[in-house]
Task: structure prediction
Amino acid sequence: MKIIDLRSDTVTLPTPAMRKAMYEAELGDDVMGEDPTVNRLEALAAEKVGKEAALYVPSGTMGNLVCILSHCQRGDEVIMGNQAHTFIFEVGAASVFGGLQVHTVPNEPDGMLNPQNVLDAIRGENIHFPPTRLVCVENTQNKCGGFALSPEQIDSVCLPVKERGISVHLDGARVFNAAVALGVDVKELTRSVDSVMFCLSKGLCAPVGSMVAGSEEFMRRARRNRKMVGGGMRQAGVLAAAGIVALTEMVDRLADDHANARVLADGLEGMEGLRLEQHGLRTNMVFFNLVTDRTTPTEFRAALEEEGVKVGYYGGRLFRAVTHHGIEQQDVRRTIEAFQRVLKERT
Ligand SMILES: Cc1ncc(COP(=O)(O)O)c(C=O)c1O
Result:
């Protein structure tokens, strides 16, 4: 029986084209700036997101950290959503390594930050206050359901912030999902931010790695900070080669994952015992709550696993199913049937 693993798009495996590119990659020492494959990937990434320069980093978490460190000094304050990945899932890195204070504002159900709330959170001139240096936005916003935020929504948060002389970083781990879902060039989603991180290793299927991008001057600082946190990787072209395939061959097919997620959401909607999170333009995620007292989250998850379906658990009664490369239409149908069987016995 095929295991249908919907826990995350991070479980994707490199494609045959990636493995071939990795095998054949031309290599050098990237810390010395001499790995031609990494250099190609960085130029390609910068061009895709409309920034002057880009940098290859081992993970999204490191990419966000390197950007935050490159924008801020110890003692500064960073504003972000209370559901932000950087706030919840990155081990407090900004505080631990940057000596920064995180100031959260509530995310709206679709993942948006209310622009006025963000402006109100900016500190004024006062000897008692830490200076506000940075605002972080996230698109798609993972914990809020992975809905795509439009260029206008992102601009509405970022532009007033930048008018106050404060920088903006985009955690765009899945910004290509957002762009594909909206039918816009990804540059439209990055035009009003100073730095962006996006992941190659999620829906785009590369085995390892993320990119950060911004101005040339910013990227010089980011390169130093990457070295400081141990992200200088020598012959990293062997990995970057897969990243080039990810960016050139794997972006458009994200639309298939989104179509599968829609079918899954339609199939789960209205099922007794479930309540779907429906707050915006869906990409590759389906978040749902278990709303029956006849089973516990642990038992429900185990019963689905016996049917060969794995879903992610987000605490309380909240679950996540993520579609990705390797999940086909028939897997979505099998998943819906598995849910029906599991819930029938428990509602
Ligand atoms: C929105 C978001 N940002 C950052 C990350 C971190 O990426 P990584 O797992 O590569 O550290 C993730 C990972 O799931 C994510 O969903």
Remarks:
- The CA atoms of residues 54 and 213 lie 4 Å apart.
- The two ends are 26 Å apart (CA to CA).
- The mean pLDDT is 97.
